[in-house]
């Protein structure tokens, strides 16, 4: 009886999603019932290519939400490990149907980026007759396990964080809306190097942006890690703003520079 009750408690059937409680669905997928159904509707290729599209999507979301290994997920969804891995791989349709309308420079216009400027950064950085696009760029971290591949292990080990990680590079509007994510890059790659690669790579996101998407005077808000890429940004006519640093021989900023840095 105990084993039977345990199986009934842990087994989750996405094909009968209405029978899953709101709490359980949110725990495994991060979504509520309406959001799950809306996401499924935006992946028509998954519906056409799979006999169990709800299960495939639910297992994929559970994997990326919880980070549980397949060997644990198979006990929850009553599937073999091989089936779990196959269904996770099958949801590549997300990259074809869902990602393009929600990520990348093609899914948002320049005017929409400008509309997302907030009052304070717009007042400080957007002064002028012509509205300016204000972008915030930064490298983020995804922590990973130590790899058995020596070369990848060396490239993914961060001497800054003392952990293994990879770096997705975020390009974000002033209100936090994500325009694009590039990478992931090696942990040993600096933010300045990533920015230089993006600007100089003719197949990169900046080059794929529609014509006249970025104009001279557009603003890039960056941290001190981008200082080596500032000359290249300015050569394109963009305005780069980085917090001030103390000069050699000084222990702290002056009052005026400290206020300006804030």
SSE inventory with pairings:
Elements: H1 2-10, H2 22-29, H3 33-41, H4 44-49, H5 53-66, H6 70-77, H7 81-90, H8 93-97, H9 110-115, H10 119-125, E1 134-139, E2 142-143, H11 150-156, E3 157-158, E4 163-173, E5 178-186, H12 191-200, H13 205-208, E6 219-221, H14 230-235, E7 239-241, H15 255-261
Helix pairs in contact: 5-7, 6-7
Structure description:
- With 262 residues, the chain is an alpha/beta fold.
- Helices cover 44% and strands 14% of the residues.
- It has 15 helices and seven strands.
- Strands 1, 2, 3, 4, 5, 6 and 7 form a seven-stranded mixed sheet that branches.
- Helix 5 crosses helix 7 and helix 6 packs across helix 7.
- It is globular and about 65 Å long.
- The N terminus is likely disordered.
